[in-house]
Specification:
By secondary structure, the chain is an alpha+beta fold. It is built from eight helices and twelve strands. A hairpin with a 4-residue loop joins strand 11 and strand 12.
Length: 305
């Protein structure tokens, strides 16, 4: 239940939601297996998995949703080899050249023939909706993966006015200052990992892991003009993560203190355990994320919004 990555989206309008209303909307777009001629499908699955049939799970003011993509995996090499075999057969039989237009047609025909036999790969994505905070939080490190879920959610509920959250000061400038001064702010502290990039377009990249970022070699790179574009941070001894200059949070780790509390709150019931973990995770985000955005210079609100 604990998110491993995080992309934060800002709701630009109020989003009135109820648990029943959200479940009814998501039921219009359930996950399903692809048909024999479909490459992929996308739909919603129960947020608590096998422990509840409800597609959306509510805890206080927070909602948890989950979506699943099912796609037929047809390796391009298999299609390419089949097309080549067919082209060779035609050219040998008819003593003529097979040109691009016919090759493309053969490729389409062969793909449709092979699709029903392709194996299906499934991948799930979770998201939390916090209407009072104005957030949609997606457990993904890829904007494309997050947008797939947001698009499906938008189709299901009819409207989802969101934009990626941004801050007023370039994150790389803040990271660089923190590492240079060896001090973050707002209850955050620097850990032992960063990425340094040269400001020139074709400049070098240096990645440091399990490294004292106060070390002279790191400070020399900063003095030479490199900027910190990715930095590992911790907050209040409750969670740690790696944050990049696009505000993508990766490798989220909720410390044992929180996980033990969730285990105690949830008891022996699996669904209650998941609910307790989700609730505690969201309450932690509720406290941590505003401090993070403030530490990075404050949230930027585009004009006209």
């Amino acid at each position: 239940m604990w998110f491993r990555n995080l992309l934060v989206y800002r709701l630009t309008q109020d989003l009135p939601l109820t648990e029943d209303g959200l479940n009814e909307a998501l039921a219009q777009k359930p996950a399903r297996a692809p048909g024999s001629q479909e490459l992929s499908t996308y739909g919603f699955i129960p947020a608590l998995g096998k422990h509840s049939d409800a597609l959306a799970h509510a805890s206080g003011d927070f909602f948890l949703v989950a979506a699943r993509k099912e796609e037929r995996m047809l390796p391009t090499s298999v299609v390419r080899d089949a097309v080549k075999e067919k082209v060779d057969e035609i050219e040998a039989r008819d003593h003529r050249k097979v040109y691009k237009k016919e090759r493309d047609q053969l490729k389409d025909e062969i793909t449709q023939t092979l699709l029903p036999r392709a194996f299906i790969r499934r991948s799930s994505t979770f998201a939390a909706i916090a209407p009072k905070q104005g957030w949609v939080l997606v457990d993904a490190s890829s904007a494309k993966r997050a947008e797939d879920l947001l698009s499906a959610l938008r189709d299901a509920i009819g409207s989802l006015p969101v934009r990626p959250l941004s801050v007023k000061i370039a994150p790389a400038a803040t990271f660089t200052q923190w590492v240079s001064e060896q001090a973050a702010s707002h209850d955050f502290y620097i850990r032992d990992e960063c990425e340094l990039r040269d400001s020139h377009e074709d400049g070098g990249i240096i990645r440091a892991k399990r490294q004292d970022l106060a070390a002279e070699e790191i400070q020399q790179h900063l003095a030479a003009g490199k900027q910190v574009t990715q930095l590992s941070l911790a907050w209040q001894d409750k969670l740690s993560f790696v944050l990049d200059d696009k505000l993508t949070i990766k490798r989220l780790r909720f410390e044992d203190l929180l996980q033990d509390q969730a285990a105690e709150d949830g008891g022996d019931d699996a669904a209650a355990q998941m609910d307790a973990s989700f609730t505690l995770m969201m309450l932690t985000f509720k406290d941590c994320l505003p401090q993070l955005f403030e530490a990075l210079g404050g949230e930027e609100i585009p004009s006209g919004i």
